[in-house]
Amino acid sequence: xxxxxxxxxxxxxxxxxxxAMIGVAAGWFGPIQILLPEQAARLAGDDGKEALLALxxxxxxxxxxxxxxLWGALSDRLGSRRPIFVAGTVVGVAxxxxxxxxxTTALMATGWILVQVGLNGPLAALAALIGDRVPExxxxxxxxxxxxxxxxxxxxxxxxAVAVGSGAPGYIAxxxxxxxxxxxxxxxxxxxxxxxxxxxxxxxxxxxxxxxWAWIIRFLLNLVNALVLVYLLYFLSxxxxxxxxxxxxxxxxxxxxxxxxxxxxxxxxxSDRWERRRIFVAAGAVILAxxxxxxxxxxxxxxxxxxxxxxxxxxxxxxxxxxxxxxxxLPDPETRATMLGVANIAGTLPQLLAPVxxxxxxxxxxGYRVLYLLTAAFALVALALLPRLKALN
Length: 393
Fold this sequence. Notes:
13 helices, Growth Hormone, Chain: A, about 400 residues
């Protein structure tokens, strides 16, 4: 029997849900934005920082890509999301504490792998809760909260890293924030037992149809976002030539998050009201392409600020409907967490590919102009594939 939603969710539950997602995102993106790049520079120097960052993030993303569907399948088998949320958070916090003391490449990679593996647990649980608990006519709104909370987590993690400082203090502060922000949902959410089909990991199959096209579009637009973020610190210092690049990363992240948050939440509400999803994906892809093209062609700080606004607006338009689309096209609701774990590979695989793609382009194949023009092209490919989602308005 498939779990059914219990009616409309209240604002208090939505708030606790958003806080939990902010905590998970802070644990992820605080390190990616500031802490990992600065740690790589300390360990490898200016000549080796890009390669070391690419290596560490690639290993972490590879682990993440495997971990998310495994957490989801375990959640379906247990018939409960809470144990997955708690266990994954514990592992992720342990990874952050390992990073706080890491003074070698091996220890740095180990810490980041633990963070990626662990935080995929609460991510899988939170994604599944949308299908478990939220009715169809609220999934645009709550799905937008899922996405907006992630980008708020980016700003929180980045702000903590800048305010507290790089190295151990920054990692420890993030390690405290992750479980603190997730506590409200654990207290407030009254989970009902979930009876679902028992699924073996060996039985997971790649689904076709609408889910496959939604997966590919999600992958492409997440790759756009990952390519914008992965070397932002180095782009600002080495190409734009700003002083105190870490502070500028924070400024641009605030700009990005502000517009993404406003557009994401407003878009989610409007998509529920209008009962339309595809138009938001189309608008997001076009605006993301425009913003990244500006970064490529005019790398001066006033234009980069405008580009950050556009990237925020475009990303917000997409995340407004991302989870609503995925939960709508799930091939089998009885394996909801498992298949959402497969869907989340489309969010984690770009983290693996982004540094692998970016490093050779930045160092030998044309630099940041080529990198960001390629990023714009990925957004336009996602736009071209959108008509394949025929089941959606």
